[in-house]
Amino acid sequence: MAAPDLQNPPNSTAVLSLSGDHESHDSQLPDSGGWITFPFIAGALTGLTLAAGGWGANLIVYLIEEFNVKRIDAAQISNVVSGSSSLFPIVGAIAADCFFGSFSVIALSSCVSLLGVVLLALTTLDFLRPEECGLASTLCKNPSKLQFSVLYSGIALAVIGQGGTRFTLATMGADQFHKPSHQAVFFDWYFFSFYVSAVISNTVIVYVEDNVSWKLGFAITIAFNLIGLVIFLLGSRFYRCVKPQGSPFVDLARVFVTALRKRKVLISLDNEDYYCNHQHQGSVKMVTSTTPTKSFRFLNRAALKTEGDTRFDGLIAKPWRVCTVEQVEDFKTLIRIFPLWSSSIFLATPIGIQISLTVLQALIMDRHLGPHFKIPAGSFLVISFISTAIAIPLIDRILFPSWKKLTRHSPTPIQRIGIGHILNALSMAVSAVVESRRRRVAHTSHLPAGSVTPMLGLWLFPQLVLVGVGEAFHFPGQVSLYYQEFPTSLRSTSTAMISLLIAIAFYLSTALIDLIRRTTTWLPEDLNDGRVDNVYWLMTGIGLINFFGFLVCAKMYRYNNTNEGSTNNGSDE
Fold first, then answer.
1. Of 91, 123, 125, 124, whose CA–CA distance to 109 is shortest?
2. Which of 188, 253, 483, 530 could bridge 396 with an S-S bond, Cβ 3.0-4.6 Å?
3. Cα–Cα distance measured from residue 94 to residue 489, given in angstroms and rounded to the nearest whole number
4. Under 8 Å between Cβ of 279 and 326
């Protein structure tokens, strides 16, 4: 995909200059930051991801088999946990940006998740779980209040800890590099590590829990969490830590309120009429443009100086009466990027629907590999993880260098997201074709209700490969875009916006499935009598419409915080 005018983002208006006799942190400690920190970031990510997958991937089975929870209730608990796991990273990101910094949030969250996993491991002890149901028993003993308290406390702490590390680690890792090109490479390898870890946790650790013992499975999970925490702390002397700058959300609210208050004030064309104050961040002075941009001009009133707004020394007298030009431009940046961000909600929603339906399809297909091995239905989804993990290094090492040789420019984050849109829609179309064939085979075989279709489950692999490769394009592309384009004070929040997007898409996909069940006959209890292929065709149509909407947004968008350095291949120390 080649989006016009997007390969050469304009230069940023911000210039870094040294203040006084002080030097920047990079100058004082040349070894801080750079690729030397990557093994520690990747090691921490791997350990924490293995731990999170170790308890989360098999949660439904654990609730049903060990805590006698009914299947529907177990599914509801799992849905709440999945949604919360995608929402809590926002809380962790805000805490990192506004108050504590990324390092402190990651270290504390890792300890919290470790405590949560330890509590979950304790529930494997006989006195902290209910008695096992007999094979012929219909009256299973419910867990006691103490047993439920320990279980839910462990889940809550594990979710909170996971939320504070997942995307805050990505932000801290990107903070180790100055050049956007190096940040983009970091995101590629960050997500490669993430997906490889997810594959291992969803296969090896789950196998241990199902076939060896829950005690051993949770013990392995505790060990990985502890290893991830130790590796992260070992790299503390090498990290470049960005100090929190206070709550940026207050500044954003001030822009809106101030512009609203001054709505009747005429906009000036004289730059001297706008408030711009040099802001110091540590020993580095940020010199920002004194000219507000022409887009969303009504917001420029927030920086327009009126009588009584400033003191004699030039500082703000009334914080809710005037803002800096930089604060106004930060607010405009969020407005500009919101359409691109919202288009990704409908990029992720079909994936959520495909995940649910693929498992249901696998349950009524031939899942045998040879005479003795049968693939678990839930393990089919690992194919998309494997595809993403393989595709990311191939894209980074082969495709993008070839792209740059042909075009003399590296692909922009928006172009990466666009390719992901196309592959995602193609995956939905392939899913529809495969389901049409499966349904046709089922009907020609005259199968009774609920019978397995004589068609190999391996036919589901192509759609999962396509969606996995698509994620290798759009997932790192989105994180890179938001990290580069969001205001500096919202760096951690920017990467966590992916998590918020996933959470919204997860709940939206659930609502769409419910709507389809209520208004059509496409999703009956017996899928052989339904039209799952029509659901996939609907998702294909939604994906294509959303892609064209994305193209419009991409055409109108102009980069703010990237420069020509994004296409360079130098190295950070």
1. 91
2. 188
3. 10
4. yes
